[in-house]
Write a structure and sequence with these properties.
alpha+beta, Jelly Rolls, 2 domains
Length: 190
């Protein structure tokens, strides 16, 4: 008797399935994707088999290779569009390596231009994104609590509660919290 494949119910399982599908849609081997993204072949294999949870850095590299934002990738593995997104229904993803937490407050949808995520970084964390997922993507980052330094193409911006940083992402970026304070912010993507 043949067993039916199990649904990839967990978020990590759905991410793994979507990553496999994206690579398949492009006809890329694991070696080709490793060369394009800078992520090792072994790590890619483990991610696609849901053997490990992806980190923000690795997902950023893969999204850049595929030319899509992290939010779009997450939208592809999350539920369909709904006008009301209750707090209890907003998906939460945590980076096991850095402690970064990403809550999809207003997830992307085909018929909407923007989306909103809430980011939380613990104290003393540094996240580097070597390439934008899509050049020119508009960002509006509103600091809610704590302190955060955002470096965009070698220009550093220090943010405190109430500050807003507006930019179009065209190159590498870095998010850093000082050792004594974490950060909580809303990021609007248009």
């Amino acid at each position: 008797m043949e067993c039916a494949p199990q649904p990839e119910a967990s978020l990590d399982g759905r991410i793994a399935g979507r990553l496999r599908a994206l690579r398949g849609e492009r006809g890329w081997s694991l070696d080709a994707l490793a060369a394009e993204s800078g992520v090792s072949r072994a790590t890619l294999s483990r991610l696609e088999n849901a053997e490990v949870s992806p980190t923000a850095s690795v997902l950023g590299r893969l999204c850049a290779a595929y030319g899509l934002t992290l939010s779009r990738l997450m939208q592809q593995v999350e539920d369909d569009f709904a006008p009301l997104v209750p707090a209890a229904a907003q998906s939460l993803w945590s980076d096991p390596e850095s402690g970064f937490r990403r809550r999809s407050v207003s997830p992307p949808a085909q018929s909407l231009a923007g989306e909103v995520i809430e980011g939380r970084l613990p104290p003393g964390v540094r996240l580097d994104y070597p390439a934008p997922p899509r050049r020119g993507l508009e960002h509006h980052l509103v600091m809610l609590e704590g302190a955060l330094a955002v470096t965009l193409e070698e220009r550093r911006h220090a943010l405190a509660a109430g500050d807003c940083l507006r930019y179009r992402l065209a190159g590498p970026s870095r998010f850093e919290t000082p050792p004594e304070a974490g950060a909580r912010y809303l990021l609007f993507l248009v």
